[in-house]
Amino acid sequence: MTKNPRILVVDDEESMCNFMEIMLRKEGYTVSTAQSGKAAVSLIEQENPDLVISDIMMPEMSGIDLLVETKKRHENLHFVVMTAFASVDSAVDALKRGADDYITKPFKVDEIKHVIKNLLENDQLRSENQKLKDELAGRFTLDKFIGNSEVVVRLKELVKQIASSDSAVLILGESGTGKDLIARAIHSHSRRCDQPFVAINCGAIPELLLESELFGHKKGSFTGAFKDKDGLFQAADKGILFLDEIGNLTISLQVKLLRVLESQEFTPVGSTVPVKADVRLVAATNADLEQDVKAGRFRADLYYRLNVLPVNLPALGQRRDDIILLANHFLAKLAFKHNCAPKTLDEDAESLIIAADWPGNVRELENTITRAFLLSKGSVIKTVDFPEKLRSSEPAEISPAPDTGNPTLESIEKAYIFWVLSQTNWQKTKAAKLLGIDASTLYRKIERYGLKKED
Ligand SMILES: Nc1ncnc2c1ncn2[C@@H]1O[C@H](COP(=O)(O)OP(=O)(O)OP(=O)(O)O)[C@@H](O)[C@H]1O
Ligand SMILES: [Mg+2]
Predict the structure, then answer these.
(1) Which stretch of 134-148, 263-277, 423-437 has the lowest confidence by average pLDDT?
(2) What domains, with CATH codes, occur in the chain?
(3) Which of 60, 174, 294, 454 has the most crowded CB, counting CB atoms within 10 A?
(4) Averaged over 45-70, what is the pLDDT?
(5) What are residue 111's phi and psi, to 5 degrees?
């Protein structure tokens, strides 16, 4: 869902406003209230809400008048009307005038939550679709790197900065953290974006072949070299060459690469004439290169040369806030691909994936979500649709928060959450319900406060 959507509740009855405000806040929305149509008009201008939910029967300006007035200026703003059971006619009138939906009073809380959630989720789907269109058009911008946790926001800023320089880049991160994605984003955001982006996986090809792939060869320089062939450095001229799994490069190729970095020239296999190359190098590895340098497997001079601008990608477990966002992104992608209605995760499934260990990081999450999508019956994905291994994994180890001494609001919250958890025997879904927060918020707080069952 969009981050904290903003809802405006309009009702001349104060108690109704209060009730709706409390109920919707609990759902994670940002809520404002207005007790007249006039007040609502100015709040809409000030706060630019995502959705308005308004009573129809109000003195002076009716909900219908408010609707008409609002739609003139904010055509895409969602508008839901509330009406007494007896006056369904006015609801029909509202729909004709552009309301998205209506609810009859007295209503069930679940009903109203459902109506709102559906409307706002459609918004997310629309923006996902835009992203997918970009993807199909081959645009690999940073927007495609999903995540809005603090680490990711900082990462994206860093990548933009780095992209605008012209020096070599080293991308470091565990398998599946998105190194490939970041390499392409660097290209899109760099001044070389209209020039080629050429990628090669250094781990997948034998040494001699790799050398000829990179630098090209002269006819007859080895068995099978029937004619002169350009290498990838030439193909990437003026653009970017992405060397994936650079840790697998042999020492002799490391030397040759260093030479290109230092002199911007190289010599094709079997040739003695150096060739100029204007290529920006982006390298990536999931190995610990520093360790490889110490062990003599990787040349220190090349390492320092590449490591001028390092980009460290966080493991998924270091940005659990993004797990649901990523999962929903993959679900939208799957629905788009299979041309079917979107599927959602139920609350327990969400809690499960937030807490799971993800050694394979985003790639593993994507594969797991794809599997669950295919296995699930109906439109809601449940914990049974996930592999047993995931279901039995314990939340990742977390270090306890430092004891600050003075009882702050936070320390009281921490103690209270711990108490509720012990009361529910650490059933987190139940505890979240009692605390009036959603499960993902509870997980975040458990992690933040370093709460553990055995404490
Ligand atoms: N932040 C992200 N947002 C969306 N998709 C992501 C993100 N990070 C990774 N992915 C997806 O996860 C998969 C793995 O990402 P990628 O290939 O970039 O990882 P990697 O770090 O290069 O892994 P490896 O070291 O195994 O090569 C891809 O399908 C990629 O699109
Ligand atoms: Mg990769």
Answers:
(1) 134-148
(2) 6-131 (3.40.50.2300), 142-312 (3.40.50.300), 317-392 (1.10.8.60), 409-449 (1.10.10)
(3) 174
(4) 93
(5) -65, -45
The pLDDT of residue 135 is 59
Angle at 422 between CA 417 and CA 426, to 5 degrees: 90
The answer to whether 213 touches 232, Cβ cutoff 8 Å, is yes
- Pocket probe for ligand 1: among 145, 146, 148, 177, the residue whose CB has the most ligand atoms within 8 Å is 177
Which has more pLDDT, 249 or 2? 249
Helices (H), 106-231: 109-136, 150-164, 179-188, 207-215
Position 419 scores a pLDDT of 83
Q: Is the pTM of this model over 0.85?
A: no
Q: Say if residue 403's pLDDT is above 50.
A: no
Inter-residue contact 299 to 245 (CB < 8 Å): no
Residue owning tokens 């200026």: 73
Q: In the structure, what pLDDT confidence band is assigned to residue 88 with cuts at 50, 70 and 90?
A: confident
Question: How many residues in the chain?
Answer: 455
Q: Using an 8 Å Cβ cutoff, are 431 and 453 in contact?
A: no
Q: Token pair of 318, please?
A: 């270091």
3-state helix, strand, coil in the chain (%, to 5): 50, 15, 35
Model confidence band, residue 282 (pLDDT cutoffs 50, 70, 90): very high
Tokens 């204007």 correspond to 278
Residue type for 339, please?
Answer: N
Cβ contact 7:30 at 8 Å: yes
Mean predicted lDDT score pLDDT of the chain: 87
Q: Write out pLDDT tens, residues 330-347.
A: 999 999 888 888 899 999
Tokens for 43, please give them.
Answer: 């709040």
Mapping DSSP onto H, E and C, the string for 199-265 reads: EEECCCCCHHHHHHHHHCECCCCCCCCCCCECCHHHHCCCCEEEEECHHHCCHHHHHHHHHHHHHCE
Atom of ligand 1 nearest to the CA of 171: 21
CA–CA separation, 454 vs 442, rounded Å?
18
Contact status, residue 244 vs residue 200, Cβ threshold 8 Å: yes
The response to whether residue 449 sits with its C-beta less than 6 Å from ligand 1 reads no
Q: 178 CB less than 6 Å from ligand 1?
A: yes
| Contact 171 CB / ligand 1 (< 6 Å) | no
Higher-confidence residue of 318 and 85: namely 318
pLDDT digits (tens, 9 = 90+) for 185-228: 999 889 998 889 999 999 888 888 899 999 999 888 877 778 88
Query: 145 CB under 6 A from ligand 1?
Result: yes
